[in-house]
Amino acid sequence: MEFDKDILSFLEPNLLNKIIDKSLIKEFEKGAEILKEKQYVKVLPIVLEGLVKVYSRFDEKELLLYYIEPAQSCIMTFYATLKNTPSKVFAVTEEPTKVLLIPVQYLPNWLKEHPDFNALFYDQFNLRYLELLDTIGHLLNDKMDKRVYDYLKKKSLLIFEGTSIKMSHNQIASELGTAREVISRVLKKLESNHKIFQDAEGIKIIAPW
Question: Which pTM value belongs to this model?
Fold first, then answer.
């Protein structure tokens, strides 16, 4: 299966050829679970096209941790492969997605032989750490209506490209780690404040915060 190699241009050609030779490229439909919680990881994913959501569970609640965009991998999966421990997260495709699956047995040697391969995961760690700090800042300083608004704005730009956000209140509550009733109440408040508009097509942001 072909893909645009330019998306992995940050890797030196020799390493890129090794990865392509040993790896599998697979396409997934929207909503496919590509990694299960407590599963031992046999392949390391790099997203080529599409988008993947990574979740964790706390007290039977699902919490969205981060998205994996094209040219990115999953730092939690990377850690699980190196330590040979079960995955603490699970991953689901947000839209039709093409993924490069690297067999984990090749990772130790490639990480030693190719410094730029290490850089990919250092960059991923730094990205997720900054996102975590940003999330903590929102939790400490923002009210729920601001959190929901910022979440919808990110969804609108990242996935729906400025069109109506087609998600249920249950889905939003799950990704923000709260109750559906809370989300319904907050969305109603945002609508009354003319920040969003809701109809049969979904939720649309109509004014900046």
Answer: 0.72
Structure-token match 């250092």, residue found: 122
Q: Where are the domains of the chain?
A: 5-139, 143-205
CA distance 141 to 133: 12
**pLDDT for 18-63, tens place per residue?**
999 999 999 999 999 999 999 999 999 999 999 999 988 877 778 8
Give the Cα separation of 46 and 106 in Å (integer): 15
Unique residue bearing structure tokens 């988008």:
51
21: tokens are 């030779």
Q: 5-139 in CATH: which number?
A: 2.60.120.10
Strands 90-93 and 52-58: antiparallel
List C-alpha distances in Å: 29 to 5, 15, 94, 96: 22, 29, 9, 5
Encode pLDDT of 138-193 as tens digits: 666 668 898 899 999 988 888 887 778 999 999 898 888 788 899 999 999 999 99
d(C-alpha 98, C-alpha 52), whole Å:
10
Strands (E), 59-114: 61-68, 90-93, 97-103
Query: Domain 143-205: which topology?
Result: Arc Repressor Mutant, subunit A (1.10.10)
CB 120 within 8 A of CB 112: no
Alpha helices in the chain (DSSP H): 13-22, 75-83, 107-113, 115-141, 144-158, 169-176, 180-192
